[in-house]
Amino acid sequence: MFKIITLGFVLMMALCQKTELTEDFITADATLANALPVDGCDWHFTMNNSSNFIQYVPDAGSKSTVEAIIKNIPAGTFSTSVRLTYKPLGTKQSVQCGWNKKQDIEEINIKTIEVAK
Fold first, then answer.
1. Is 35 exposed, middle or buried (0-12, 13-18, 19+ CB in 10 A)?
2. Closest Cα to residue 90, out of 59, 46, 51?
3. How far apart are CA 117 and CA 115, in angstroms?
4. Closest by alpha carbon to 28, among 49, 43, 5?
5. What is residue 10's predicted lDDT score, i.e. its pLDDT?
6. For 3-27, what is each residue's pLDDT tens digit?
7. Buried b / exposed e across 85-95, counting CB within 10 Å, b at 16+?
8. Among 27, 51, 80, 97, who pairs with 103 as Cys (CB 3.0-4.6 Å)?
9. Quick check: 79 and 87 in contact, CB under 8 A?
């Protein structure tokens, strides 16, 4: 009986432990852009590395942080340079692009975002 109680206690402790993300975040320069007025995609991040043009959108947990940045962008401005610390999630989100079209863009979790000066 003691072994069963001990085993139950050990299992309960293992299941109740807090999970921490151990993956590293990436820091990079990016452009927060809204190209929807010119048949591109609604607000998203773009990055260029040596061989690729990459697009990302914030996950649900990061959306409010990005919306706060967007609110401070002057009217008529459709992009701004930012410094972004993020982690790709491997999931995609459907984003409005062009005339009644949608595009699946990879989601990221944003740790920090700063508008470039």
1. middle
2. 59
3. 6
4. 49
5. 38
6. 444 434 333 433 333 333 446 899 9
7. ebbebeeebeb
8. 97
9. no
Structure tokens at 90: 């491997």
Could you tell me whether strands 101-115 and 26-33 are parallel, antiparallel, or unpaired per DSSP bridges?
A: unpaired
Interatomic CA distance for residues 48 and 33, integer angstroms: 13
Say if pTM beats, i.e. exceeds, 0.70.
Answer: yes
pLDDT 10s digits, 46-104: 998 778 889 999 999 999 999 999 999 888 888 999 999 999 999 999 999 888 889 99
Type and span of the H or E element at 92 = strand 79-97
Alpha-carbon gap, residue 96 to 40, rounded angstroms: 8
